[in-house]
Amino acid sequence: MPRMNMIQAINNAMDTCLARDPKVLIFGQDVGYFGGVFRATDKLQERHGLQRVFDAPIAEGGIVAMAVGMGAYGMRPVVEIQFADYIYPGADQLISEAARMRYRTAGEWWSPITVRAPYGGGIFGGQTHSQSPEGIFTHVAGLKTVIPSNPVDAKGLLIAAIEDDDPVLFFEPKRLYNGPFDGHHDRPVKPWSQHPAGEVPEGHYTVPLGKAAVVREGAAVTILAYGTMVHVALAAAEDSGIDAEVIDLRTLVPLDLDTIRESVEKTGCCVVIHEATLTCGFGAELAALVQQHCFYALEAPVERVAGWDTPYPHAFEWDYFPGPARVSAALRRAVER
Amino acid sequence: MPRMNMIQAINNAMDTCLARDPKVLIFGQDVGYFGGVFRATDKLQERHGLQRVFDAPIAEGGIVAMAVGMGAYGMRPVVEIQFADYIYPGADQLISEAARMRYRTAGEWWSPITVRAPYGGGIFGGQTHSQSPEGIFTHVAGLKTVIPSNPVDAKGLLIAAIEDDDPVLFFEPKRLYNGPFDGHHDRPVKPWSQHPAGEVPEGHYTVPLGKAAVVREGAAVTILAYGTMVHVALAAAEDSGIDAEVIDLRTLVPLDLDTIRESVEKTGCCVVIHEATLTCGFGAELAALVQQHCFYALEAPVERVAGWDTPYPHAFEWDYFPGPARVSAALRRAVER
Amino acid sequence: MSLADPDPQRSPLSLHIPEPTSRPGIAPDFSTMRIPAAGACPRPGIDVQPGDIRDLAFGLIRVLDDEGQAVGPWNPMVDADTLRRGLRAMMLTRAYDERMVRVQRQGKSSFYMKSTGEEAVAVAAAMALDRDDMCFPTYRQQGLLVAREWPLREMMNQVYSNSGDLLKGRQMPVFYSSRKARFFSISGNLGTQYSQAVGWAMASAASADTRISAAWIGDGATAEGDFHYALTFASVYRAPTILNIVNNQWAISSFMGFAGGEATTFAARGLAYGLPALRVDGNDFLAVYAVTRWAAERARANLGATVIELFTYRADGHSTSDDPTRYRAAGEKDAWPLGDPIERLARHLTTLGEWDADRHAALAEELAAHVREEGRASEALGTLGQSPQLDRASMFDDVYKDMPPHLVLQRAQMLEGN
Amino acid sequence: MSLADPDPQRSPLSLHIPEPTSRPGIAPDFSTMRIPAAGACPRPGIDVQPGDIRDLAFGLIRVLDDEGQAVGPWNPMVDADTLRRGLRAMMLTRAYDERMVRVQRQGKSSFYMKSTGEEAVAVAAAMALDRDDMCFPTYRQQGLLVAREWPLREMMNQVYSNSGDLLKGRQMPVFYSSRKARFFSISGNLGTQYSQAVGWAMASAASADTRISAAWIGDGATAEGDFHYALTFASVYRAPTILNIVNNQWAISSFMGFAGGEATTFAARGLAYGLPALRVDGNDFLAVYAVTRWAAERARANLGATVIELFTYRADGHSTSDDPTRYRAAGEKDAWPLGDPIERLARHLTTLGEWDADRHAALAEELAAHVREEGRASEALGTLGQSPQLDRASMFDDVYKDMPPHLVLQRAQMLEGN
Ligand SMILES: Cc1ncc(C[n+]2csc(CCOP(=O)(O)OP(=O)(O)O)c2C)c(N)n1
Ligand SMILES: Cc1ncc(C[n+]2csc(CCOP(=O)(O)OP(=O)(O)O)c2C)c(N)n1
Ligand SMILES: [Mg+2]
Ligand SMILES: [Mg+2]
What we know:
The complex is a heterotetramer, with two copies of chain A and two copies of chain C. By secondary structure, chain A is α/β, with parallel strands linked by helices. Chain A is 34% helix and 17% strand. Chain C folds into two domains: 50-387, Thiamin diphosphate (ThDP)-binding fold, Pyr/PP domains (Rossmann fold, 3-Layer(aba) Sandwich); 392-418, no CATH class. Bound molecules: thiamine diphosphate (TPP) (2 copies) and magnesium ion (MG) (2 copies).
């Protein structure tokens, strides 16, 4: 099976969709001739033509608006926001328009659009190239939010997102593009080619939206994670020697609550982790759901480990990032209840 | 003491600040000559002059941007977003700029701005005149969020917000402008003039940001509420006959966790209510905090009663609104644990 | 705290706040308004270079002169039947508006917005476009639906949120949507449709389709970012679309000076992006028809977008929630120098010998009866809050294509009263 | 699914995607670029009506001719000392940029952005403005700081996020902020400073101050909503500000056609709002100085804002993360017909007899030594990640003016390793 890193898998997903469906169309800043600042659309313009893969003006609001209009026409646009930190000028078109188009027209129109954005910290990007804004959009009814943690999922989830008839935010943890970074920033990251999830099938396949994956079975505590934090969770389980069950949520909305509930009922405790700031992050929803649905199984409070409630500070990236040490400490607190 | 409804109290707060501080300046759509579509700035232009209270172009992004620039100059701008539903074009300037100005300049500049917006449903405003978007902004480090539930608080909190050197979102439950609407939409609402909180002192006073109020003492269950839902909580306590303690949070960020903790430790259970959609709403944060900080006191899961995860439907306003019947049912579930 | 003290050598700055020429108590004054004579503006070929017709952004294309004659190069030479259809659609729009305000006053709906005085803007455009061209309107272009003969009762059902409402009671009154009438869902958020229209047109072009889009925005809403996105993308990709700016002088209580109308025209916006920009008398049916045709032909010829400022006047309040007497001079509507679109078209037809007072009265009566009848048919399906047939459980539909588990659960909770 | 089938009677539409004239492998070609002669554009009085000078948005104001002579009405008649100060600041900016790229390559900082080829844009403006005027720059106007003699070591400390960094290591390199130099904090989010500058100017006017603001934006970023907000509000309230558009032909890999530059000039944007709009040779120090002066005088006279397009060329990569050889023709920089701002000013001074090769070489050497020295002083305070003096607990400061309880708690948690 071919081996791909995450950028290649994402590129391959778009390549596959462009080839299968003439209604798929890709645009965004620098995605055309250049192939994207992270190379996610490398060669796609060359392969599929100028009219299907092209550059866009620097106006995220306009980019999303065009996608909504094209979606109303009947296209299936896939747009790139160069960094998730720059999604806010597009917030209105996402929240007020794309998210509610099907509802407000009682199904006459809808927004089958996919908004891709490199996301998360770990590359010394400071406060405007490191953000994890998923918690803002998971609050909005009508949007779906997907965050992959590895190449094989990334391809299958992205194809599913593109083929989905609802608007999907697809956040790509940029720190994972080249390898399964686990938060041990002082160690070399092995490339995806040496990781089983770097084996990515050719051609068309999907990973269904709304289904989590148990990436490590364990009995002592459940860790709910997504994106980069899945690998941090695995590292923390290893480092701490605590037999954690690690769930990779993959899709935040709709959420796979069944898988979560099953695990927490088994382990009796739960640690929720994300890189986004703590307050009102998606972890709050997870903690609220877990305590509600698993109250009588819980032997300790649901712990949250997250980015601090500050902007992402350039020089203190590794003090900010919720790495394996902090997660391990939370695991210990959870099991030493 | 003068009696004021909530609009009058808000108007009076701005009048007071304009008179005291030449750096205060008010603008927004229709706020000048006309005095605002809800009359919040009635007569303020006449009293304080064209250059201090004026209309603005229909560009929420521009309005917030101007406020940020004026704040950098040294002014203390107060802007109105005509409906909270229209705040999204201003999201980028709020989230990327105002919220982080002090941080990114290490205190060289900051954004002492107040963004007022009528907010919440109950006036047949459909999905674009009814929203409660606080949960989006409470996730953003650097912003403060205030939501008053009555005239005397509204004036004191608004003055505190205007005088605060950090950016404050001030959401005004429009259904409360004329009286303490408690969700019994089929009953007449008594005017604020017949309510003790309609007694509003003249002149300058503040209600400090970050301090909740226990508006009803009770032993059986704690209800955490803000804005309109405070009155719904009181109605539900009455309707159900359950001895609920009702906490009016008043400020969401920073949050008065001490008051919450104290109450839940006493009652042993907690119902969190808001009008905003459930998923990832501020109630998620509250539930997460309560289960974390009061885990060993909790005898039942923290319940959340909130707007359904749909847009606000025009004709089904009262099926959508989390009224006293739904809150009462949650209270019963909580105490019949 | 200021950074430094003002320089005493220099005279202090001051902030300019625009003010309209009239307000309640100050008599309306349109005397400084420059109104070029009908027929005065040249009509270029559709393949003209935009840079060669910049003057049209500062003129005013008019066809009907004060005597009701159609004059000059922009005269679209429309036959009398078509003109009578236009007149009919404008009159029907006005009659419909009047009824819907009345029923709102009776508490049968929550809200309404009229287009009185601006009927030509929508009706003439609808008639100049193909029936398949896609419209992205604001709440004030109900005339498009009327001209496209979308049944009034469907519109009323929406206003009443009754059991016939195709939008299932979800939207505020007048936020129509009709895929069949190629009338895009109206958003409460000003301006968003404008940029979407460009996206739609780009998709049409990318699909080798032949259909174009047309969008409308109010003078006030041009200040939104979406306006800028629309013009930028339309210019960059030469999108086949028509970008109409309806300058009706007011945005609720703010006169168009707060959108930049003191400094230049709204048509001038088009120049910023190298787009052809036409400024037209929006109360002149023939002129609106002609410029729309011109822009449509240009778009269909793959020459890209056109910006059109429709200079008109909002003759009534902003909506039923509004009281314009609080901020507008009483006589402004009557002082408006460009007249009423219905009267002007009727006069023109009369001049042609194709219309007379009796036919006018008879038509008015017929339309009133039609509106009454449609109203009765619609009210039979209920009015706001009086329509038990509406299924409240449907409020969980269409949030997503397939209902996800959390909404299935919430729907059950609602039905159980939790 | 389309709404209907294309009309077979009509020819199908197609989507235009802009393409630059050259790419790697295609020789650069600026032959179609219209370059008016130096001295050819008229210079109106500052109280001119914007509508009377629309042509200036399509011309190119140039003072230095090909022989290095200053010609025409825009010649600002600056004395040789001032010119030498300008030359020095431009050369220092370039020398600084070169060092900072070198140290980035050595891993001492995470990132860097040069302004090579565009130094006149910032330096001439800084010199034409008052020291108290407030600048709202992008990341490519480091020349403002240099011209205002903000210490290089302070800039370096920021780039290194070292213990001397006044921004406490919080910001990515080059996102400077200096209240003392009246240089507003650079945002990572393109365009946001542009509208803020107008707010600042409005506040200055409302305070009867005498200071004005000036803002810069790239050609690419003009597509953002903030650009439109800036021009709209500046027009409506006649804000005393200067709105500079730095058209350096590229936005990372996208040529300026993707911001609308195929259809018209960027200066033309100003016409949309009734603002005076000047298009200027951005590599001509004297021309940039002159137009900035004109706009500043106009703003100070309470006549409002001016839009200036600075026509220049990004001679190097976008940033240290960029590789322009992947998308730009190799020889483009050398083919750029408007030359290099440093060479052109040096030549002019030489023509005046106020400069020569020896002095130039000596100055270059002096500046190189200065940069080296400042570099050493800054590096003594550490480089990225090598600056133990920085206090990580400070990362919780300044989120709010007073630290709220939840941040006090989080800071404690971090210090405890939780
Ligand atoms: C984004 C947004 N901001 C504010 C409003 C509130 N609002 C509704 S209509 C209106 C005035 C619009 O004026 P204009 O664009 O001139 O259109 P007109 O009503 O004159 O047809 C305003 C401010 C809104 N609906 N959406
Ligand atoms: C809102 C936003 N969108 C995208 C980016 C990513 N980005 C950084 S610089 C840049 C190109 C800017 O080009 P231009 O405005 O022409 O300025 P130049 O770099 O040429 O000086 C882009 C797309 C960003 N920083 N902010
Ligand atoms: Mg208007
Ligand atoms: Mg550029």
